[in-house]
Design goal:
Distance between the termini: 169 Å
Structural class: mainly beta
Number of strands: 44
Strand content: over 45%
Helix content: under 10%
Length: about 450
């Protein structure tokens, strides 16, 4: 091979151009190929080789050593050296790191909040690291001072930046007094303790709410100016109360301060705070009276468990069907006991106040037709007088000899009867002597 051929081939190798060998016999030789595959992040980064931009890399390259630069605006450039041989394929992923810088945010006074995209990221002084190329901003906030917006710009040289926020006070003075004092104060929904109140707050309009048990809530909008004193004085409105009266048993007469109201249970509304005399009474129960303190804005519940002041009477009156009178007033009749034929159930009288009572029993066929007795009733006691027996004609009897009687059948069996034509006189008759015997009707 001549010297000229050797120089030409060497130059082609340097340029990365593949050429075949030519033999002395004129035969073509297959060129050697190397594999080089490169992927990028970001994918649109620029590829530069020998000072020229390569739009697209081919995987098949001439075996050689390549030095390639990868670059993109806003990113740090990357250099790679690739020694390409047919024996060793190369597969590489190149990642470009963005150019960033740090930003120091400070404020006068310090310890202010730093807000970026409506999110608090720290307090001054603070360093924001890894800030990308371009413009950035933050809001510096401190209670009692006007918000300040700070801005910065990161350039490709990656030099750190420093910004300062000079904060100006925006506080005014607010003084709140109330009558009465010690009222809960809320400013813009936040509790600020009890009145009287005096403190600095941010200039502008604020909603204040005053609350105290027993008083109507007060809401006001106040305007506070910077470096000035705003005063507000509020007289709280006392709320009325209510008296709720319950009794056991219900339906007792109710008196409040001597005036009668609806029977219990009852609630008297819109009552001025103060002391009231509550009295309840009901027939058969002890009267009760109590002083009640009504507090503003509250329902005062008064409960009375009334004690019975009555007694009772258990009467044993035979036979059934006898009328009962108490102090001359009809009360009822005795009835037959289903378990004891011909005998009366115990007649019970309840709810009678203490005192002396006249009990009268009566029947129009009785001999005598009436009987009376005196009973003394004590509180919560039940009295049982001696049994009352009345002789009552209950049977019509006609004998075969023509005699007729209306009297009381004392007893009977299959052969004879024992009959009382008048009280205290008993006569025995056999069944053969009797023509007719039947009970008298009630009205007879």
């Amino acid at each position: 091979m001549t010297m000229r051929k050797i120089i030409t081939y060497s130059l082609l190798i340097i340029l990365g151009i593949s050429i075949p060998w030519i033999s002395g016999c004129g035969k073509k030789v297959k060129p050697q190929i190397a594999k080089l595959k490169i992927t990028l992040t970001p994918a649109d980064a620029t590829i530069i080789h020998n000072g020229k931009v390569i739009k697209k890399l081919k995987e098949n390259v001439t075996p050689n050593t390549y030095i390639i630069k990868f670059a993109k605006e806003g990113y740090k450039p990357v250099w790679r050296k690739y020694v390409c041989t047919p024996e060793k394929p190369i597969n590489d992923h190149v990642v470009l790191e963005p150019v960033t810088a740090s930003v120091l945010i400070n404020s006068r006074p310090a310890k202010a909040q730093v807000v970026i995209n409506d999110k608090v990221v720290g307090a001054t002084p603070m360093i924001l690291r890894d800030q990308p190329i371009g413009s950035g901003s933050a809001i510096v906030k401190l209670y009692g001072y006007t918000d300040v917006k700070v801005e910065w710009k990161i350039t490709e040289d990656g030099r750190p930046k420093e910004v300062m926020a000079d904060l100006n006070s925006n506080l005014g003075n607010l003084e709140v007094t109330t009558n009465p004092a010690r009222v809960n104060l809320y400013i813009d929904g936040r509790s600020r303790g009890l009145t009287p109140f005096k403190d600095k707050i941010i200039q502008g309009n604020h909603k204040i709410v005053l609350k105290r048990r027993g008083y109507a809530d007060v809401e006001k909008i106040i305007s506070v100016q910077r470096d000035k004193l705003s005063k507000i004085k509020v007289s709280m409105l006392l709320l009325p109360g209510s008296i709720k009266v319950e009794t056991s048993p219900k339906n007792a007469q109710l008196f409040i301060n001597g005036r009668q109201y609806q029977n219990t249970p009852f609630t008297l509304k819109d009552v001025n705070p103060g002391t009231y005399k509550v009295k309840v009474q009901r027939h058969g129960f002890d009267q009760e009276e109590r002083d009640v303190e009504v507090r503003p804005g509250e329902v005062t519940t008064v409960s009375f468990k009334m004690e019975s002041n009555t007694g009772g009477i258990d009467l044993v009156v035979n036979p059934p069907g006898v009328s009962i009178y108490v102090n001359g007033k009809y009360h009822g009749k005795t009835v037959e006991d289903e378990n004891r034929k011909g005998m009366s159930k115990i007649y019970r009288i309840r709810g009678i106040s203490s005192g002396e009572y006249e009990i009268k029993t009566a029947h129009k066929r009785a001999e005598p037709s009436e009987k009376t007795c005196k009973v003394i009733i004590h509180k919560r006691e039940t009295v049982r007088p001696k049994p009352i027996l009345m002789w009552i004609r209950d049977t019509y009897l006609k004998l075969k000899n023509g005699r007729e009687y209306k009297g009381r059948l004392h007893s009977e069996n299959s052969k004879e009867i024992m009959f009382e034509p008048i009280p205290g006189v008993r006569q025995r008759y056999s069944r053969d002597e009797i023509e007719k015997m039947e009970p008298l009707k009630v009205e007879e």
